[in-house]
Amino acid sequence: MKGDLHCHTTLSDGSLGIEEVIAQAKRMGLDFLAITDHDTLSSSSRAQILGDRYGVKIIQAVELSAWDKKRNEKVHILCYAPQKPNRLEGLCLKSCQIRTECAKDMINKVMERFPIPRDAVMKYTKGSKSIYKSHIMRALISYGYATEFYGSVNDRLFSYPRGECLVTREYPDVNFVLDLIHSSKGVAVLAHPHMFGNIELMKELVEAGKLDGIECFHVSATDTQQRALKKYAEEHDLIVTGGSDFHGLYNSTMTHIGKFTTDEENLEKLFKLIHLNAKKAKKVGEASDIQAKEDTSTAEEASAEE
């Protein structure tokens, strides 16, 4: 039993649709798949239906954007199986709005340098909840101003932190994001700690008891780094996850669905926590229903006395 717990579709910055991703997961012999589009859970319903059709079990998930204010760095948090996903809607909308505002400013900067129409970018965003740098680069490739997504043109325009056209803004604070995930009764896993230099933050969050797991197996980490992350996670009784972080055409590093996976032992730990969260959510829901009935009854009695 194995699962790829990190991949993207056209709902964010992937190049393949939901069905294509799930069909490929089946070809790769995966038992479980988590579609973790950035700041949106929109894939959930359709992914469950298609998962049943292809015989791949789908874990509801989202990759949430966050900010480490202490170090002024970006952070990504993977949230799995939120029992109250509506509690994440406001956060997702806010982050998508931030990303889209940045992208619009970047498009304007690019158009000052290259004579391409705005529609050349927008046609590649169809279905996506935001606009991404990869969409802008695809437009530049289409019009002959670049030959690859991550070559010299991309570096000049969008390299962090001094790209000519790069526009960035802070996302919500990572502690707020983690608290909201747990409020939604979801499972919080730190995504690719080495990608954004989040190792110190990771240790602080673990000490504070805010993480349920760490994505140890990811293309951004060397074999040595992956082993060290796994050792650290196991020492702190955290879930050890792995995922391809598949984006299709838009991947900066060659990776495919199923390249990195989560093993049976850690899938079982994940499902155990999901089950526990579901019980807690149900208990809270039942308590709320009882309170609502009592409030209604009291109101009716008061009305009758009047």
TrEMBL record:
One of its GO terms (molecular function) is 5'-3' DNA exonuclease activity. Residues 281-306 are annotated as: Disordered. Residues 3-68 form the Polymerase/histidinol phosphatase N-terminal domain. It holds the Pfam family PHP. Residues 283-296 have a biased composition (Basic and acidic residues). PANTHER family: EXONUCLEASE, POLYMERASE_HISTIDINOL PHOSPHATASE N-TERMINAL DOMAIN-CONTAINING PROTEIN. This is Polymerase/histidinol phosphatase N-terminal domain-containing protein.
